[in-house]
Amino acid sequence: MKGEPFRIKMVEPIRRIPAEERARRLDEAGLNVFLLRSEDVYVDLLTDSGTGAMSDRQWAALMTGDEAYAGSRSFHTLREAVESITGYPYVLPTHQGRGAERVVFPEIIARPGQYVLGNIHFDTTRAHIELAGGRAVDLPTPEAADTSSPFPFKGNMDVEALRAFIDEHGAGSVAAIVLTVTCNSAGGLPVSLENARAVAAVAREHGILLLLDAARYAENAYLVREWDPGQSGRSPREIARDFFDLADGCLMSAKKDGLVNIGGFVAVRDEELYLRLAPRVVAFEGFLTYGGMNGRDMAALAVGLQEALEVEYLEQRIRQVRRLGERLRAEGVPIQYPVGGHAVFVDAGRMLPHIPPEEFPGAALAAELYLEGGVRAVEVGTLMMGRDPETGVERRAPVEFLRLAVPRRTYTDNHLDDVAEALVNVQRRAPRVRGLRLTYEPKVLRHFLARFEWAAER
Ligand code: F0G
After folding, report:
1. Each residue of 59-85: pLDDT tens digit?
2. Residues with beta carbon inside 6 Å of ligand 1?
């Protein structure tokens, strides 16, 4: 069966503005696609976060939302849904994933300079660790940076490096380990169950808190089921539960595998940790039974969490993203391979080898892809890595990626064929593509607000 496991009840018109207009709009945006208006974008693959379509059941649930300030029925529905999936009884709602990060990291980082180790931290996670005085360290499996290696579990953490780090710095210097599933920055590729077990064993042995960044945990479970022969007969829900069972809690951006447009939560197993985190939710997000969401959002999320674990949904989701990747690969566009859950990651460094990292090949490719086809995608590379907060030195990304993130249940394969065509056209003139030079750069999270000019042709 090739068809989508849904039919479409409501549509939103989109259009592609003419090429000259796109050039004008991009100039006005300082060549930064984050600063474009979405109505000037044809296919928007900037992110899969909060950009998906809700189901009729979710829209129906919205109407049942209980907007009580305290004790909302919708909160209890959400809490039960989260516990049924994760096994964690204590659920703290937040407005999105970074809200969860802001609640958690300042509380668990006991003193400045403590480390938070991970496979590869997402950029907001890194920012919140650093804002809390901690140090974010990535210990990815070496295959993560080798886009031509067929190894599927490029989201894995390097367990030997983890052990070596703890031996060198001492367990007391590590505030937590955060395993991001799937690993966004490694191409949306999964963490294997075996790797999660090994990481959990190290954490347990040293008494270190282990948290999952569960933003795309359902996609991770589906890919494990597909690529780990030992797991093939099991449901995504069962596999996901094994991951949650290994950890002490999770941070969730529900805008991904919660299938909602806004929302998030922290869920933990231990009451003592919950009681430490709870006042921070009240202070920064909202009272414990809404924490940055309204009753409607929580009701829709409770349904979305269940839908995102359905095999038919995940099959179509993964197949659509993979199809885009296969089309690009067939045309010789270098991509992270195999293709992961939520996005195709183009190896912009390999596609534009004449552009050095300090001229941001991924961001230059993003600008060109918009000019070519009105398609918006995002750099995941040296621009996003930013600068070391202590030395101000630019951090080099291991790979200069352009990420084509596919929103859930939103675009058709025809849209993605247009994306592939535009990217292949850019590839044909790759040697003439110029790099970007920063003309404005904020101190943290610079990629969102930076402005550029074209660098000289090389
Ligand atoms: N963790 C991961 C792995 C993420 O991918 C994101 C967001 C967050 C945490 C933060 O969650 O956006 O709800 O505050 N990723 C989006 C993206 C923005 O485009 O990949 P948030």
Report:
1. 999 999 999 999 999 999 999 999 999
2. 47, 49, 96-98, 122, 124-125, 180, 184, 213, 215, 253, 255, 264
